[in-house]
Write a structure and sequence with these properties.
It is a single chain. The protein is an alpha+beta fold. Helices cover 31% and strands 23% of the residues. The protein is built from 13 helices and 26 strands. The strands form seven sheets. Strands 13-21-20-17-16-14-15 form a seven-stranded mixed beta sheet, with helices on both faces. A five-stranded antiparallel beta sheet has the order 1-9-6-11-4, with no helix packed on it. Strand 18 and strand 19 form a beta hairpin. It starts with a helix and ends with a helix.
């Protein structure tokens, strides 16, 4: 084998050579290229190249996301692959060897023999937007040199396109398994996510709200009981408490983080307090030691709302392992997101895990035998398999978010009128949201950014106690910090699918607003 072929096996340039299965038979040779074993992506388009004049070249082009597999069934040709300034050249002259080209590569096909027949398998149907026709345009695209004129707050289609070939294989595996409720895919993800969080048990649920409700029900929390929670959070936290018949007791938040102010918890504790729900909002962990000190050893359960904190750490330990139990959401926008609604609960308590599993399965352990008044709230194996596949990339995605957050914090520090989120020394956030505060000028800044194509969001514009569904329970002014936070907070674009150039564009537009 030539040195070129040996180096190509490393995949450094985005090409790898894959030996195919060949089966000699009395009446000919059968060659096999299987998606899972050889190609690595589902095939949605196939075409062939033949009758190319000997020694000629053709097919010089690039693709942003398309994956291809080249097979030379007869004759020979040369395939040149360029990525990140590095070029590898391979010669395909055997039908039992395929060249698999990854996304983001430029390819040149040349030195065709007179009798060559080449088959190309592609991961998607033809898409003009994915096609790059000139090498100069490819180099500019690769270097993120395309002029940026807009940045979406979040574009879920980006991540979907990036992982579509892999996820199709995952979904195909689930379909072939015949398990559509429960089964090995669910068991595998529950075990792996529990290990990831550092706990003994994980139980899948239909969504994050259900996970909160199931935990409260498993602890027999209901009418007459009180549950402490922050006044500034997504409403699901409060809805879970109301659903079990208990009373939400709101506590104001820290002015520089928006998280539960643990110094105010002790004053909210009464004889009826059964649980506290600290919300790791925005992917920032709550001061859990401070919270436990505020409870002073009382028999009060701690139910982490970790729906936005997949992988965040508090003093080295991951959220999901810091209380008696933790509820997670795997809504598609989360750092670890499914392709629909999904949720789960983590705990070190095997009895709690078993009870939650029963409650989510109609109160049953044995089919048609219902020990509890349960409900239907289960994580289906299709979503579990997708989440399990994504779990391997979560830490890398979170680190990319942290890199962008550091970029924001450095470049935007000191701008008059712009308040940045505080990060405690013991916190390792995963920045599900990057919230800044602009007291008195939020609408003006929103308009400025919208004119320049920058998407933003508000998490959240109305605190819990001022929501219409809770009219009459509390009054405006009861939780002033939460109200001020809701009136000034603005979420900037920050996702692992954003590029450095996009983050820099957002920074430039913000600096132009605050330092005209």
């Amino acid at each position: 084998m030539s040195e070129a072929l040996k180096s190509d096996r490393t995949g450094g340039s985005g090409v790898r050579l894959v030996p195919l299965q060949t089966i000699p038979m009395a009446n000919g040779i059968l060659g096999v290229a299987e998606v899972s074993k050889h190609i690595g992506f589902p095939v949605h388009r196939a075409y062939y190249i033949r009758d190319v004049p000997e020694g000629s070249s053709r097919g010089s082009h690039g693709h942003k996301a398309l994956r291809q597999c080249f097979l030379c069934l007869r004759g020979s040709f040369q395939l040149s692959i360029t990525k990140n300034g590095h070029t590898e050249i391979v010669t395909l002259d055997r039908p039992d060897l395929a060249a698999v080209v990854e996304p983001g590569c430029w390819r040149d096909l040349s030195h065709f023999s007179e009798d060559s027949v080449v088959v190309v398998l592609a991961s998607d149907e033809y898409d003009e937007a994915d096609y790059i026709r000139s090498f100069g345009d490819f180099v500019a695209w690769e270097a993120e040199g395309e002029r940026i004129t807009s940045v979406p707050y979040l574009d879920l289609a980006r991540g979907a396109r990036e992982m579509a070939p892999e996820l199709e294989l995952v979904m195909r595996r689930v379909l072939r398994s015949g398990y559509f409720i429960g089964g090995p895919e669910l068991a595998r993800f529950e075990t792996r996510f529990a290990d990831y969080c550092g706990v003994g048990h994980m139980v899948g649920a239909g969504n994050g709200l259900d996970a909160l409700v199931l935990a409260l029900r498993a602890w027999n929390i209901g009418p007459g009981d009180e549950v402490i929670m922050p006044a500034h959070t997504f409403i699901a936290t409060a809805l879970a408490v109301d659903e079990v018949g208990a009373t939400p007791v709101l506590v104001d938040v820290e002015a520089d983080t928006g998280l539960l102010d643990v110094t105010k918890v002790a004053a909210a504790v009464t004889a009826r307090t059964r649980a506290v729900i600290p919300v790791h909002l925005y992917g920032l962990p709550v001061d859990m030691d401070g919270l436990k000190a505020a409870l002073a050893g009382r028999d009060i359960r701690i139910l982490e709302d970790a729906c936005q904190s997949h992988g965040a750490r508090y003093k080295g330990r991951r959220t999901g392992a810091l209380g008696d139990a933790a509820a997670f959401s795997f809504y598609p926008t989360k750092n670890l997101g499914a392709l629909g609604d999904a949720g789960g609960l983590t705990t070190n308590d095997p009895t709690l895990a078993e009870t939650v599993r029963m409650l989510g399965n109609y109160g049953s352990r044995v089919k048609y035998e219902h020990e509890l008044v349960g409900r239907n709230s289960r994580l289906d194996p299709l979503q579990a398999a997708i989440l399990d596949h994504k779990l391997d990339r979560l830490d890398d995605w979170n680190e990319r978010r942290r890199t962008y957050a550091r970029r924001y914090l450095s470049a935007l520090s000191g701008l008059p009128g712009l308040e940045l989120p505080a990060v405690r020394d013991w916190a390792e956030p995963i920045w599900h949201v990057f919230p800044v505060r602009i007291p008195g000028r939020r609408a003006e800044l929103q308009a400025h950014l919208a004119e320049r194509g920058v998407g933003v969001n508000i998490h959240y514009p109305t605190p819990i106690h001022l929501q219409p569904c809770y009219a009459g329970r509390w009054r405006a002014g009861d939780f002033p910090v939460s109200e001020a936070f809701a009136a000034s907070v603005l979420s900037l674009p920050l996702d692992h699918t954003h590029t450095e150039a996009e983050i820099d564009y957002v920074i430039d537009q913000l600096r132009a607003f605050f330092t005209p």
